[in-house]
Amino acid sequence: MRTRFWFQVSSRALAAHGTTTCISDPHEIANVSGIEGIRWLMAATEGIPVRLMYTLPSCVPASPYESAGATLTARDLAPLARDPRIASVGEVMNFPGVLDGDQVLLEIIELGQPAGSTARGLAVDGHAPELRGLDVCGYAAAGVESDHESLSAAEALEKLRLGMWLWIREGSTRNLEDLLPVIMEHTPERCGFVADDRTPGDLLREGDLDYIIRRSVSLGLDPIQAIKMSSLHPAQYFGFKDRGAIAPGYLADMLLVPDLHDFHPRRVYIDGRLVAENGKALFEAPTLPSTGIDAILHTIRLRDFDIERLRLPGHNGKAHVIGLVPDQIVTEDRLMEVEARDGCLVADPARDLLKVAVVERYGRGRVGVGLLHGLGLRQGAMASSVAHDAHNIVVVGSHDSDMALAVREIERLQGGW
């Protein structure tokens, strides 16, 4: 779960839509602030009615080529594993590292094995788009148990047949329509829904897992199967033996829903307490704790940045361009005609061709510049420090001066978009 809200705020929206337990991979804050960031986040989210549980982030940094603010190893993470709020080893995004036998990464995966960090072991989450054949066999054999990045029905079915769990993502990036035929035809038990990277607007406008249930039912899925994929199946995967049923000995997490085909929770109970009714949370969002927050909120330190760092030397002709794919996290390599002025490549908004740069935020002074196609921005620039996974500043624009201004504004704000 990633909503881009502070959980103090998003918990009210989640409760209103019937979500009672969330699993969050804190690799975002960890890539910026390390183990101290994780500990601060866990302390900051105590006492909120909606349960927030965490994973042990396996991707800090996400790859050897990232410029992150921290590096975490199995030795750093092992003490956290014994916290009862830890649900799994977080998504293993560096699947090339797994296949290459990266020892640091394999030791983190081993934390999920029984007696690796806890007596019962932990689930190990995956992240492996388009990984097929012997490569996905090696990935699973290393101990990774699930994937939420499958892009096609054939890929999803292959992973299920290897014994992996399939999570169908319908966040602001969407795969439901492509993958639902696998569920409709084969009715596998090792599958569920995730609302990964759901933007605040989509969460408030559409909902959370309740929206995915409604959407899947509208596409023909049996509502009971859809509900199981949002409750029982995740509980089984994470080993939550006290969740997934309304029965003696289970947590009293319950939703009252008038119509299973139009899934809108009327009342939401967590631990037997009524926390939301008729789409409204019945609790106030607690304030953020002040202790340690300055170190979390002031982390952007630019070095030697000016407009000259956004120049992209080149000449007229064809160049490789990053191609955006609507509603998807993956991009394409596109070859396009480009124009140079004074020895540098320039944007051409009329053809939806823009400049893009990544400006490193941790005081090392690194800047990478390229070209981007498919965003639709006609003038000006936009920048964000919410940029998976190292969260350096990503800026896109039609002119270098606009891009430089946007970067400086992110620096002034100390983060945002």
Automatic annotation (TrEMBL):
Pfam families: Adenine_deam_C, Amidohydro_1. It comes from the Bacteria. GO terms for molecular function: adenine deaminase activity. Keywords: Hydrolase. Gene3D superfamilies: Metal-dependent hydrolases. InterPro entries: Adenine_deam_C, Amidohydro-rel, Metal_Hydrolase. Signal peptide: none annotated. Residues 328-416 form the Adenine deaminase C-terminal domain. Residues 13-275 form the Amidohydrolase-related domain. This is Adenine deaminase. It comes from Ktedonospora formicarum.
